[in-house]
Amino acid sequence: MTASDRPADRRPGRTPSIVACPDGPILVRGDVTITDDTGQPIPRRRSTVALCRCGASAIKPYCDGTHKAIGFTAP
């Protein structure tokens, strides 16, 4: 992948941003590599991704909105 192929938010120099949404996922923006428990990169196709923090998503580590159905709450 070349620099011109990357989403704008993933280009080098973009300051990463991580935000915990109330009662929802963690939003990750910017040039951040997400890895699994063995250190292997997890594919990321979007410049902003939502990571599950309720534990119930069917597409972990990404959020699928299940937190709404199960009534997940967190500050």
Q: Helix and strand layout, with pairings?
A:
Elements: E1 17-20, E2 26-29, E3 48-51, H1 66-70
Antiparallel strand pairs: 1-2, 2-3
- Main pleated sheet: 3 strands, antiparallel
Q: Which band does the percent of strand residues land in?
A: 15-25%
Strand segment count: 3
* CATH-defined fold name: Ribosomal Protein L9, domain 1
Could you say which overall geometry the principal axes of the C-alpha atoms support? Answer: globular
Please give the alpha-carbon distance between the first and last residues: 37 Å
Helix percent reads under 10%
What does this 3D model show about the protein?
By secondary structure, the protein is mainly β. The chain has a single domain (1-75), classed as CDGSH iron-sulfur domain, mitoNEET-type (Ribosomal Protein L9, domain 1), CATH 3.40.5. 7% of the residues lie in helices and 16% in strands. It has a 3-stranded antiparallel β-sheet, with no helix packed on it. A hairpin with a 5-residue loop joins strand 1 and strand 2. The longest helix is centred in the last third of the chain and has 5 residues, at 66-70.
Descriptors for this entry?
75 residues, Ribosomal Protein L9, domain 1
Short description, anyone?
This protein has one helix at 66-70; strands spanning 17-20, 26-29, 48-51. It is mainly beta and 75 residues long. A hairpin with a 5-residue loop joins β1 and β2 (26-29).
